[in-house]
Amino acid sequence: MRRRSPKPSHACAERLIEVNVQNPETSGRSIRADWSAYATAYDLLSEHNPAYQELLQDFEAFLGTIETPRLIYDIGGGTGNYTEVAARTCPDSEIHLVEPDIGMNAAARAKLAQFDNVEYEAFALEDIGASGTADLLICVHALYAMPDPEQRLRDMRRLLRPGGWLYLIDLGRDMDVADWRSYLFSSLKREHGLTGALRVFWQGREIAKQNKTILKAQQEGTYWTHTAEEIATAVTAAGFEIHRREAVYRDYSDLLVCRAKP
Ligand SMILES: C[S@@+](CC[C@H](N)C(=O)[O-])C[C@H]1O[C@@H](n2cnc3c(N)ncnc32)[C@H](O)[C@@H]1O
């Protein structure tokens, strides 16, 4: 994959990440989640979160409705759960997992080691220089955390060929940590009993901590919050035609299935 060239002195991906961390536009003094800390328990809670599992199932069902995409990007792919679905169901496709966080990237590499159709790109979306070639872009719960989300949507449009698909899910509403805690605890207790629920909560305590940070970042405006209308307007303005749109993830998030306009 071609990366934008304006940082010639930083040849390797690790150095690029370091540059991003120190860039006030992308990090600075604002509150931001520590994605590497999040990565340590991300899959533990994702596996036990029925709302998360529903989204993964929706994505797999969506893949069954379109012509097999040849080139796929999973932007902000985290620990690789959506890439895993794509790699498994589209074994002949080339999949690029774009994930700038070292911890998330390492978790994804370990989990997806058996797939030889996955490339790992340790860059932020804004540092990818490719254009006009992708057939499908996946971006789940990552856009809200990126600097200048409207510009990032235009970057996504640039990566896609005309008619290419964007499968976008974004957290739009404030992360009500107490509400999620009670939802997850009830679901875990039903499945694993009180002791099992307490054990998973203890093992996944880093997630609660990072979710509180996400809420703070939303409240101070570092992370984007939006209504369904606002994200639909931004997606359309970036050059997409919306094919399906619904509130998901217990109404905290918006799902938009779109095609890149010619
Ligand atoms: C909540 S995780 C979502 C992971 C995955 N998409 C999922 O749904 O399981 C958000 C991810 O977005 C990534 N991210 C944040 N800013 C980004 C950027 N500018 N470009 C690409 N990824 C970014 C973070 O590193 C983090 O791993």
UniProtKB/TrEMBL annotation:
Transmembrane segments: none
Keywords, alphabetical: Methyltransferase, Transferase
Entry superkingdom: Bacteria
Cited Pfam families: Methyltransf_23
Molecular-function annotations in GO: methyltransferase activity
GO BP terms, alphabetized: methylation
Protein name per the record: Methyltransferase domain-containing protein
Originating species: Gymnodinialimonas ceratoperidinii
